[in-house]
Amino acid sequence: MQYPHLLFVAAPLAFALLCLCLPFAWLRMASLVAGALAHLTLVARSWQVPAAPPAAEAYIALDPLGHLFLTLNSVLFLATSVYFVGYHRRKLVSQRVFLACILALLAALSLVAVSQQIGLLWVAMEAASLAATPLIYFRLGPRALEATWKFVLMNSVGIALALLGIFCVAAASGSADEAPISLTVTDLMQNANRLNPVWLRAGFLFALVGFGTKMGLAPLHSWKPDAYGEAPPPVAALLAGGMTLGAFTGILRVVQVCNAAGLATFAGSWLVVFGLLSIAVAAMFVVGNNDYRRLLAYTSVEHMGIMAIGVGLGASGSYAAMLHAMHNTLNKGVLFFLAGFVWRTYHSNQIRDVAGLLHRHPFAGVLFLSGLCATCGLPPFGMFYSELGILFAAARTSHWWVLGLFAFMLSVVFVGVMTAMLPMVFGEPSKPIEAPPAPVPPQRWRGGFMLGAAATLAALAFSLGAYQPAAVKQALDDAASTVNGPLVRVAVTQRPQAEAIP
Amino acid sequence: MNSQTILDGALVLVILLNLAMLAVSRLATCIRLFAMQSLLLALLPPAIESSHGNVPGLHEALVAAGVLGLKVLLIPWVLLRILRTGEIHEEIEPFIGFTASVLVGAALVVGSFAITAHLPLLAEPVSDLLLPVSAATILVGLLILISRVKAVTQVVGFLVMENGIYLFGLMLLKQTPLLVELGILLDLFVGVFIMAIVVYHIRREFDHIDTHLLDTLKDT
Q1: Cα(B79)–Cα(B101) distance, rounded to whole angstroms?
Q2: Contact residues, chain B, for A287 at CB < 8 Å
């Protein structure tokens, strides 16, 4: 078999087709879980094969960066599919299409992770957002429609700009003889000193803005609170934890090429600017927000900003960015799963309607609290270490103003999130909430599936924060050095004058 | 008349169509103008190839056929169909008036000529006009997207922008793999298809396709 890694794409697609064909709802649900489980099994097996450096012209290959993100996505999708078994209700309009779209999203994101050719990566990323669109419009009605329209339009513009960026990168490598341009990352990096720096800069900026729109970096983040607020919470978890990783991959591939071409400072400073702007926007809108799902969406904008800053700070920050990406995926899963649970319990999106979760559902309350602590970067959790790592990286590279702004805005977000969300957990349930007559009588097993999935992710996040096995550290290290690899230093010495060209 | 003149003439027509799309108020006319622009773009790859004295190959033929099928026939047909099922055919007064937006569009065209003159030339430019026209088309597409109210017009704006990017891609046509281009076309098709469905739902939900009513979701 020429491309064994295409199995990661083919397996979920096969189960998606199965979802479309199967006659009974419970069978389709089983097919969703089986698809996610099969994917995770394949991914787990792939870790036993020692990683080989991708061949220069291979379109599909598994490098450490893609492998890490593929694994994170796989874990998140399995947890979400289990959660969805408990979350789903009969009144869903077309469960077939919905489940098939979830699996198609997984397939598209897997293709993003394994594609080494940035054109192919673009196609996969666009496929991912197209698969996500019906998921957002799932609840029907004007509000969901508005969120879907904004999502489709902004993401289409973003992805079009990313395509322009990829064309600019191709233009940078254009040569006088009409030799075919290979847009594989390895090839571009090997020929980095022959790339035209002006076109490469333009390509990087367009790719950053384009994929940044999809990732939710400010200033093009405005679809994010709407989409995350209106989509069903498990879908929001997939978007916040999974699709952002895909878009981040797109940015990182171009960053790899820029680093190899000696444009590391240029790319890094733009990443830092966009990152700081995202955290600032999140800090502004988190304070005083009264919709807990929109608030969580703004924390997602914040975390995207943190990841961008980490990569922008160069080799020492990249490890922290990878660590942050891992914990962000786990944490967004936990928080949106619980947001869905809270919504099912209180039937309201408003923070002021929700109080005393710890009294009504002690277990859910504890999980929610742990998720909040994790998202704010409190010590036992992994994001504390990644944010600390970025602070250290800023200090080591003497970006003092970055360090100051970063620390200040993180504390604003911390105060904003905690003052808004702590009353949801603690506090007295003010009035006995009379549940509106539920179409389906509450079933305990539903809560079990929902909280079980959330608890698994929370336990994983907690244990990875408290103790990091050597294998995990190795994987993160490898992924970080894929972005700022040893190849960089070689290439920079070959091309010291690149920065001087305007 | 040599082939170079024909190419340049076609590119100038593309710019004129951009400005015309900014000027018209009837939605159906706007969509037809877009279809005409796409037709010009579909004929460009074989034309470029024959201007080099070669017979157009499979690659050019497939891309031309793809653009012809999607952007000239299918997508305008879908959009016109949506209009026909609805009641409203006129763009109501946009955020930027029609005359003003033509002026802004003209400024954008001048600006893109000024900026692209400073960019290093790619290997063997097909026509000196290709790069500035591509930049102008992208910018005009963005302008339509931002300044118009109807959902259908916003879709047209996105498509015009996509046309500009396609023009840019023409410079690299021979050097990029076919597989990726077909993937791009496929994604574009599905994307517009989904947009059309959403527009249809907006019309059904609100009885019209003004997007300024889509402003319930915001932070208080």
Answers
A1: 23
A2: none
Q: Which of B180, B201, B220 sits opposite A120 (nearest CB)?
A: B180
Both tokens of A442, joined, read 């509450």
In A139-196, where does DSSP find H-type helix? 141-172, 185-190
Q: What is the maximum span of chain B, computed from C-alpha positions, in angstroms? A: 63
B contact residues 87-126, partner A, Cβ 8 Å cutoff: 119-120, 122-124
Is A164 close to B168, i.e. CB distance below 8 A?
A: yes
d(CA A106, CA A245): 12
* CA distance to partner chain B, nearest, from residue A259 (Å): 21
Answer positive or negative: Cα dihedral of A330, A457, A133, B146. negative
> Which stretches within A47-117 are classed as H helix?
64-87, 95-114
**What distance in Å separates the CA atoms of residue A449 and residue A260, rounded to the nearest whole number?**
47
d(CA B122, CA A198): 11
Q: Is B146 on the interface with A (CB under 8 A)?
A: no
DSSP state of B121: P
Residue of B nearest to A120 (CA): B180
Question: Chain A: nearest CA to B205, how far in angstroms?
Answer: 7
Among residues 225-284 of chain A, which lie with CB inside 8 Å of chain B?
A: 225-226, 229-230
The total of other beta-carbon atoms located within 10 Å of residue B90's CB is: 11
Q: What's the CA gap between A362 and A425, in Å, rounded? A: 9
- H helices within A397-427, ranges in order? 400-425
Contact with chain B for residue A332, Cβ under 8 A: no
* Separation CA B42–CA B60 (nearest Å): 9
Which of A455, A192, A210, A413 lies closest to A306, judged by CA? A413
Contact state of A294 with B219 under an 8 Å Cβ cutoff: yes
B contacts of A170 (beta carbons < 8 Å):
172, 175-176
Please tell me what DSSP assigns to residue A24: S
**A80's tokens:** 């979400």
> What digits encode the pLDDT tens for the residues A16-55?
999 888 888 888 889 999 999 999 999 998 888 776 666 7
CA dist., res. A403 & res. A380, Å (int): 22
**Do the Cβ atoms of A255 and A313 come closer than 8 Å?**
no
Average pLDDT per run of 10 along chain B, which is 220 residues long?
80 92 87 92 83 74 85 87 71 74 90 85 70 92 86 86 86 70 72 76 68 67
Give, as one character, the DSSP assignment of residue A45: H
A246 phi and psi, to 5 degrees?
A: -60, -45
A290 touches chain B (CB under 8 A): yes
pLDDT tens-place values along chain A, 502 residues long: 567 788 899 999 999 999 888 888 888 889 999 999 999 999 998 888 776 666 777 888 888 899 999 999 999 999 999 998 888 776 556 788 889 999 999 999 999 999 998 888 998 998 998 899 888 887 777 888 888 888 988 888 898 899 899 988 888 887 655 667 778 888 888 888 888 888 899 999 999 999 999 998 988 888 999 999 888 899 999 999 999 999 999 999 999 999 998 888 899 999 999 999 999 999 998 887 888 889 999 999 999 999 999 999 988 889 999 999 999 999 999 999 999 998 888 888 888 888 888 888 888 999 999 999 999 888 878 899 999 999 999 999 888 999 999 999 999 999 999 888 888 888 776 655 555 555 455 667 788 888 899 999 999 998 998 888 888 998 998 899 888 865 433 333 344 444 433 3
| Spatial separation of the C-alpha atoms in residues A429 and A330, rounded to whole Å | 29
Query: Cα B123 from chain centroid?
Result: 25
ipTM confidence score: 0.88
